[in-house]
Design goal:
This is Nucleoside hydrolase. This protein has 14 helices and nine strands. It has helices spanning about 1-30, 45-50, 75-85, 105-115, 160-170, 180-190, 195, 210-215, 225-230, 230-240, 260-265, 270-280, 285-295, 345-360; strands spanning about 30-35, 60-65, 95, 175, 200-205, 245-250, 300-310, 320-325, 335-345. α5 (about 160-170) packs across α6 (about 180-190), α6 packs across α10 and α11 crosses α14. The longest helix has 27 residues, at about 1-30.
């Protein structure tokens, strides 16, 4: 009997050791990431979203891709390349992508505002102001307050860059999408295996039940800009065969960049923190939280799974997200279950973001 107990104890110990080794391997396994964003700058949520990915053990940033949205694509590309120079992270390639949505246009958006009311934030197409004098296509690049970059963009188009990245590391690449989903939709159409070859998609957008927030809070924060700018791309992307999709939507509106937080970041002076302090922008940490969750999913304290899609029918609901439980979800239309983040460990996220911003500098 004693011998059997010893054997059982040994088996239990071996099982525990094997499980511990597996967990350790999971913790130390390399995480490959490509972030696609509409890199409005200088400073602000878009630029700051790369910080949770920098100098993090076991995270390899394969590249950054650029999509039109918060600004015109050529300006965004220049802003993020300049920040990488300032932070001495020029080993990270930047691939330029879509300069317009798949279907949506300046003229269609101008007409939509006339019919259904003002869109608070229009990004490249008028910002918080009027769309009336916005050109139909991307204008020439102007002056940058932080200076022009010397780092050249990668010669590969963003959609092709994304495709190459996931095939170079099959089922290991996390795609972080924090702007309109145009580049991802192009990649999906160019290569039907693109989504299924990635590890997962983590995206910023898909705000739900935001109408009351637009009345009682900040209408801009409730507009779901990334989805309404290119609804067709969002629909294509969210119905592609990803192994996993995580939606960082409403929860990101609740965590703000404040002067106190910026002062904490700037307590350690580096070229990167000085840049962030100079171009401080008091906005929610939308994209920063998205990229942090992508590489540290245990920041999430509560989530729910539901089917999700984006409306592509013309009208006031164009570009709005919809979700369904199993019992009422539309059938046979390619919908995916999405992990919708409901709450996060805010204190931990902010503490780590401060530390990461102070450790953002690469080697000379």
């Amino acid at each position: 009997m004693l011998r059997f107990r010893s054997l059982a104890s040994l088996a239990a110990l071996l099982t525990f050791s094997t499980a511990s080794a597996a967990l350790h391997a999971a913790d130390t396994a390399p995480q490959y990431v490509v972030e696609d964003n509409d890199w409005l700058g200088p400073g602000g949520s878009d630029i700051q979203s790369v910080i949770p990915l920098l100098n993090r053990p076991n995270v390899s940033v394969l590249g950054l891709t650029v999509v039109m949205g918060d600004d015109w694509e050529n300006a965004e590309s220049a802003h993020i390349r300049r920040f990488l120079e300032i932070a001495h992270q020029t080993q990270i390639p930047v691939a330029e992508g879509a300069t317009l949505p798949l279907v949506n246009t300046v003229e269609a958006t101008r007409l939509r505002e006339q019919q259904y009311g003002t869109i608070p934030w229009k990004g490249a197409w008028g910002g918080l102001g009027s769309i009336d004098h916005t050109p139909a296509t991307q204008p020439a690049l102007g002056h940058l307050p932080e200076g022009m970059p010397h780092l050249a963009a990668d010669t590969t188009h963003a959609a092709e860059f994304l495709i190459r990245a996931v095939h170079a590391h099959p089922h290991q690449v996390t795609v972080v999408a924090a702007g309109p989903l145009t580049n991802l939709a192009l990649a999906i159409r160019m290569d039907p295996t693109f989504a299924s070859t990635a590890k997962q998609l983590v995206f910023m957008g898909g705000l739900l039940d935001a109408s009351m927030t637009s009345v009682t809070g900040n209408a801009d924060f409730a507009s779901d800009f990334n989805m309404i700018t290119d609804p067709e791309a969002a629909h294509i992307t969210l119905t592609a065969p990803w192994a996993s999709i995580t939606c960082v939507g409403n929860v990101s509106n609740d965590i703000m960049m404040t002067p106190a937080l910026m002062n904490r970041m700037d307590a350690k002076h580096t070229p990167a923190t000085d840049y962030l302090k100079r171009f401080f922008s008091p906005l929610p940490l939308w994209d920063e939280l998205t990229s942090a969750i992508a590489v540290e999913p245990n920041l999430v304290t509560k989530s729910v799974d539901a089917y999700m899609d984006i409306n592509t029918a013309s009208g006031m609901d164009y570009g709005h997200a919809h979700v369904w439980p199993d019992s009422t979800a539309p059938k046979n239309v390619g919908l995916n279950k999405v992990h919708i983040v409901l709450s996060v460990d805010t204190a931990r996220f902010l503490n780590e973001f401060v530390a990461q911003s102070q450790n953002a500098m690469g080697q000379h």
